[in-house]
Amino acid sequence: MAKTTLPAPEIYQIKIDGELPESWSDWFNGVVVETQTAADGSITTTLTGSVIDQAALHGILDSIRDLNLKLIAVTDLASPDS
Fold it and tell me: Which of 31, 37, 41, 75 is the most exposed place for a label (fewest CB within 10 A)?
């Protein structure tokens, strides 16, 4: 019987509008939560971390949607186009 090899987790960066507390990291599957304030005073939060597969990524995105947060960008940091 052949072994099935699972793909390696990808590192994603997800940027949303507004501020989330760092303590929400566990709620988003252990990603790093960082908040930035721009010169114009606007606040964005970036979630960065390892995502095991597309289902896990969609789970994080579903949570963002369920919280009614504005999604700004999703970037696969391992992608050669990023």
Answer: 41
Provide the whole-model pTM. Answer: 0.82
DSSP 22-61: GGGGGGGTT-EEEEEE-TTS-EEEEEEEEE-SHHHHHHHH
% helix, strand, coil for the chain, step of 5: 25, 35, 40
Which CATH number fits the domain that encloses residue 45?
A: 3.30.70
Per-residue pLDDT tens digits for 30-72: 889 999 999 999 999 999 999 989 899 999 999 999 999 999 9
